[in-house]
Amino acid sequence: MEIIDLSQLIHAEMPVFPGAPQPQFQQVARVETNGFRVANATMNYHVGTHMDAPAHMIASGKTLDAFSVHHFTGQAAIAEFAELSSETITLEAIQKYEPILHQIEYLLLKTGWSKYWGSEQYFKNYPTLTPEAAKWLTSFPLKGIGLDAISIDPITSTDFEIHRILLDKEILIVENLSNLNAIDADFFEFFSMPLWIKHADGSPVRAVAMIR
Question: In percent, how much of the chain has pLDDT > 90?
């Protein structure tokens, strides 16, 4: 069995969505002076590799604590778009994955954008689903969709239409995945466990792929 880490490391200088505050960390106790080490962290729920709940965009949507823990794991497959020549993943482009969509619970969109993590390019021109493609995906029994980019909507979006289409159907969104190139399997188990926080509209996750 192989376990592959698909998460970005959280630290004070990490990339964050434009306009969002950087994570802050404060050392409040040290072994040398207190006999133990403790630090405080201040950050929003949507930092690093994280999961969006319906409540992130839908006023009456569920928060993550309302989902069973089983909802955060499932059979998964990758949809390959790293060589896409445009900034949109069209309905026609995604429909070729229809045979596997009947067999999985999580679809991971591989855009190749994680290679730009830490640079300005990470926030520019990454492929995103068209509304037609997103609506079509809601016809399958998916628990979630993940991708290796900052957002499932274009960085310039103000209405976050793709988020709303998916989250309205309670399809969770996992953003800022990494290391998808390391997965060499048609199907694998995907685990993306959020913190169990009351009324959380999102949460950082430790996302992993398990290949048997």
Answer: 98
